[in-house]
Design a protein that fits this description.
The complex is a heterodimer of chains A (about 180) and B (about 130).
Chain A lengths: L2 H8 L2 E4 L4 H14 E3 L2 E2 L2 E4 L4 H7 L5 H6 L2 E3 L5 E3 H11 L4 H4 L11 H16 L16 H13 L19
Parallel strand pairs in A: 1-4
Antiparallel strand pairs in A: 1-5, 2-3, 5-6
Helix pairs in contact in A: 5-7
Chain B lengths: L22 E2 L2 H9 L4 E7 L4 H17 L4 E6 L4 H6 L7 E6 L2 E7 L5 H9 L5
Parallel strand pairs in B: 1-3, 2-3
Antiparallel strand pairs in B: 2-4, 4-5
Classes of the chains: A alpha+beta (about 180), B alpha/beta (about 130).
Chain lengths: ~180, ~130
Amino acid sequence: MSLITQTQQNAPILLFNDECGVCRRIAKWVKKSAATAPGVSSIIERPIGDDPEALLALNNDLDIWDAYETIHLLMPDGSMKVGGEACAEVLRRLPSTRWFARCFAVNILGFRPFQRVLDLGYDALSDIRPVFGCESCGSPSPWLRPIAWVTQRVRVLFGGAQGSPHSAHFTGINTH
Amino acid sequence: MRLNTIRNPDVASPSRSARDNIRTVTSATFEELVLDAKGPVVAEFMSYGCTHCRVMEPILQQVAGMVSPDETIVRVNIAVERELAVSYQVQGTPTLIMFLDGRERARVEGPNPTVSTVLSAVTKPFEQ
């Protein structure tokens, strides 16, 4: 078995939302950072896509709605890590970040303070994604809507796109 | 609610919460299953990346079970079937379009995700 094949088989699969610009940028950074040698990567990135059956083929417990809801990392042993735990595992696997990712395992009387901070950071990023132009992440939280509105106007002012109408999502208050 | 590490078994995913009462149609099957169908058909234009569609999914599954076999509810994934979305001028997701004998009778955009609202939306256009 070649080294590449061995490495790819031992590499977890990071599922990312390919409809979200923020997620695409993060996945691109992970891909770049995960390359340990030409053709060898410590993490495989894969867009979630639109086929529920294809995801079930990867892992029988993997649901496409869940995959879009939060970050999923499919481990080589068949388990899945999600949310902040998935972020920590990704950072542990990247050569450039593994040195500080050890802190996420620090456990003080059953409490993992650094992991908790990462969980909160992930949740915050997930909430503010719509502000950065993610049309697939739903409507921004009420407190974020003024910021999202200003961001959108600034983007248009500088020649940016307003977003595809077919990626817009109704919020449940637009009954006609 | 966001989940961490281990999925909570008490929180069912929309597509696992019940038997799938909603068939996915593509541009290849749209004509046969929607336009050529006899009787009422409701097409939900949705995408899996849409948070409101996720909220709607179990509601629509429930409604699909309630109206079957008089009505058929199908889903169209606009991330894949963009041409269908354009031809039906879908401005966002979820959009429910009610067809009777292949002709559009009504549409509802972003309905409130309650069984009563959705049930009313998918049955009233066919009562006229």
